[in-house]
Amino acid sequence: MAVPEIAESFTGSVSRVTIGATKDSGGTRTSTVTVGGARNVVYGGSMEETSEKPVIAMDVLDSRPEDWPDALAEAYKDVFDSPGDWAKKCVEEFGAELICLKFEGIHPDKKDLDASHAVKITEEVAKAVGVPLVLWGCGNDEKDNQVMPKVSGAAKGENCLIGTAKEDNYKALTAIALADGHNLITHAPLDINIAKQVNILVSDMGFPLERIVTFQATGALGYGIEYAYSIQERQRLAALGGDKMMAMPAICDVGYESWRAKEAKLVDAPGWGAAGDRGPMWEATTAICLLQAGVDIIRMRHPRAAATVKNFINQIRKKD
Amino acid sequence: MALTGLQIFKLLPKTNCKKCGMPTCLAFAMQLAQKRAKLEDCPDVSEEAKEQLAAAAAPPMQLVTFGTGEAQVQVGQETVMFRHEEKFHNPTIVAVTVSDKLTGEDLKKRIESVNSLQFERVGTKLGVKAIAVINDSGSDDAFAEACATIKGASDLALILVTESPEAMAAAVGKTADAVPLLAQAAPDTAEAMAKIAKESSCPLVAKAESIETLSELTEKIKAEGVEDIVLSLDGLSFRDQLFNLSRMRALSLKKVFRPLGYPSLSFVADPASRRGGVDSDSDQQAAMAVSLICKYSSIVVVDTVEPSALLPMLTAIMNIFSDPQIPVQVEPKVYPIGEPDEKSPLMFTTNFSLTYYTVESDVEASRIPSYILVVDTEGTSVLTAYSGDKLNEKTVADAMAKANVESLVKHRKLIIPGYVAVMSGKLEEATNWEVMVGPRECSMLPKYLQEVWRKD
Questions:
Q1: Smallest CA–CA separation between B381 and chain A, in Å?
Q2: Do A280 and B307 touch (CB under 8 A)?
Q3: Cβ–Cβ < 8 Å for B39, B29
Q4: What pTM did the predictor assign?
Q5: How many Cα atoms sit within 13 Å of A72 on the Cβ side?
Q6: What are the pLDDT digits (tens) for B174-214?
Q7: Does B419 contact chain A (CB < 8 Å)?
Q8: Any CB–CB contact under 8 A between A153 and chain B?
Q9: Most CB contacts within 10 A, which of A206, A307, B211, B300?
Q10: Bridge-partner residues for A33, per DSSP?
Q11: What was the ipTM of the complex prediction?
Q12: Which domain holds residue B203?
């Protein structure tokens, strides 16, 4: 019996977003990263229809993290107080193609650091590494609106990816990302309808759809990953079905979420394996799981987990 | 694929005899198509029509079981490509290899380490469900011996892995009563392997390096009288396996292509490095296994016995195979975080797993030992439960009584989610406890506990 053809008639595709600007395009980056572009579901159809290679953005915090478990902190303890060196370590030792600078320390409930600090760190990191940058606020709307426009300005011309724009707080960031020529992250709390709504709001302000990356919020393995998983799959299917408002590449925050999991951070857990192995394993498998649903950029923390995921990506993307 | 009413009508006697209770054969056909009537209601239907209708009604992917008693497992009968379309039905089975080169104490130790890979997560037992015995030795007797020993020393289901029909026959001779899964029949061994499978009534894995060859192979095996078949693309690169697994799933579900309408089995380590006893890179195995679990492999065979690698694989299965229609819930009871005592804060939240995990994580982050009381809201979040009247002064008071919180803490202060501040008054009346309104977002809990609770 002859094997029938599977003829998928997808009309749409995921848009392509390029992050980073080299000298030729008015920036100072030494490399750029392009994500998105899928014309089929993950492993659907032929290799030609797959997305650009998914990339890992390694997290660098703007100030020394206070609550990182030892198994994670170990890898960075010599550079915690110098985000520039931290970023350099990620790029030179761990092969990061993208750095996500997370402004944790500006949060009013954390260190409440000010805009001048954030600007200084942005400049420091931009100088220390040549890879493109993701600039990520602290999550407190008021403080982000105060600080992130200045951060954006400090990286003007670098074609960064900046976030996050939310349904009830998108105007300031969208306007400044537009003015400074950055790409924008739109953020929804595991709700596909809100995700689309934010994209509509942002595009109503004149922000080009092909410069948006969506963040649907992330759950770690064992902590709600199935919600994120299905939303990512539905986003991909909507994009393939021709919905322009859902046709963006997706970013997820695996590093932060997976290291909150008990399985990663508990030191003493008999029967679960060595503490030093569990964390990197939890982070890597959370990332792998979301890759199956079609995410394009993965924020990660532990070098061993990042190496596992990179190895996996190379394995499924190598040319014949 | 289900037939339409008109397609069914063509197979009926078309006598309009009304014996089925319907006025016409067409009306009966319409009822059949909607599964509101049974074919047996028609006394005059031909045998041929019965067969055709039964074939059309058969699920597009077959269910295959192996193992016996408690160890029996079932795979296949999936109905959708994406879990949100309905759900994935039969969770992937994780099997761990044991080499037949191991003997004596080494073999015993390996079996024990596989047996011990059992875990518990949120009240559910997770574990490795099968042992894959690998015929590394090349010897028929050694393989049969190892299989017999493992059968005696483990309660897990068995997968017998050999390319040799002679070795398979020898091993099946000692294990047939445990109904092992026989892996695997290649095009050149199909007849011999199918014969063993048929005589022992064991399911058989068909292995080929392309979908086209594989579908010819399953037809051949089926013609030999073996119905329970599992598909394997062993030998292909990992990437090609993933693409082909997706294509096979689509062919079986969307095209109802019967030669590929079976569950599948994948080895995560490539055959050359498959040693069954020597761990290759556990991290990489976990990564590959999680990918195969998400993307359509019904049985995944790994080498690693590292608990840190198995726990995430099994958790991924639990998550991906959960029913998207039913919110994942945690058991409604009091959860101590850290080592709380009678002076520790007590707060409540709902039993929707996401809500609970978030609260739990933020309470942990506060480093203040606390009690979290989980109120049964049928798996809904705080705001949804409140608007649906599943979270009110009565349900909270009931949960407090049931959990006997009065004996846990000496104070009489209850922290409630900021979003339901409006129920404070009624709750104080219903419980005689002092209500403290916590933050709306639980990410603010650490600050709240450290500042407001401590000051109090």
A1: 13
A2: no
A3: no
A4: 0.90
A5: 31
A6: 999 999 999 999 999 999 999 999 999 999 999 999 999 99
A7: no
A8: no
A9: B300
A10: A19
A11: 0.97
A12: 63-320
